[in-house]
Amino acid sequence: MKLIETRKAAGTVLCHDITQIIRGVTKDARFRKGHIVTEEDIPVLLSLGKDHLYVWEAGDDMLHENDAAEILCRACKNDGMARSEVKEGKVELTAEHDGLFKVDKERLLKINSLGQMMIASRHGNTPVKKGDKLAGTRIIPLVIEKEKMEPVKQIAKEGPILSLLPYQPKKAAVITTGNEVYFGRIRDTFTPVIEEKLKEYGAEIAEHIVLPDDHKQVTRAILRALDNGAQMVLCTGGMSVDPDDQTPLAIKNTGADIVSYGAPVLPGAMFLLAYYGKNRIPVMGLPGCVMYSKRTIFDLVLPRIIADDPVTAEELESLGEGGFCLGCEICTYPNCGFGKGW
What we know:
The chain is an alpha+beta fold. The protein is 25% helix and 28% strand. It has 11 helices and 19 strands. Strand 2 and strand 3 (26-31) form a beta hairpin. Its EC number is 2.10.1.1.
């Protein structure tokens, strides 16, 4: 930082805000720190009583906050993200399309642990809409050592730490099980709920089968749906531990790889997730709560399935913290704490 005459300041960078006060009109910064002084600015600065200015003195070992912010932005920005103009060392990212927002938590922590810089994002594994804000970055000081940004560049070589996976609309087969529905004792109110949830992500039901509590029939129906090209199979009913609840056994007997039967989420503890064959087609057993609760485990998993983002057993296990839905009278999901543990 050095002191210079304002008349000679064109092209230099201000080290501090310069406030303009007009009685009854404004009292605010007329020029912000980091502003590059132009010839047109000089008469205005003189009119504000600034005959001298403190400006940034460039050196080979230092970067201005805006230049450093560009490096930080490159470490974050990925396909499907729009960025703001850099201002005061800050850049914000927004979604250019609907999709599943992902965060590399480990590398995010590494950058935030470097000091003098920060990245703040919304939670990962969150469905977002076009135009939603995703993250903001900032360089804390006005100038920062160039060497401080080198670890950021190294981390960025692995690719951006943020990603926005577009949805891949899928055709689903729904297999409704239960003697009570099959024999017409009650009306199927489960399938319409699934249909609405699939529509949120551009997916649709291509096949719907109703079967009694017979695990052999259910197994055959799942395999037939897969042979017919179903891109996901959703089984409803028979997911409890009663003697007549045989859906988990039916899914297991298809030969699918069971990721988890049960999840630390309420509503949704009796959820089952499996992947079938070399193409890893998702097969799910949905507990009854999906039918009558506003948001459940299905709402947490479905956007990842639609975005072709594989779900692991460890990730499901991590949902215990944040996996308790409060059942708010006015639901704001996904802008709430539900399911933010993974």
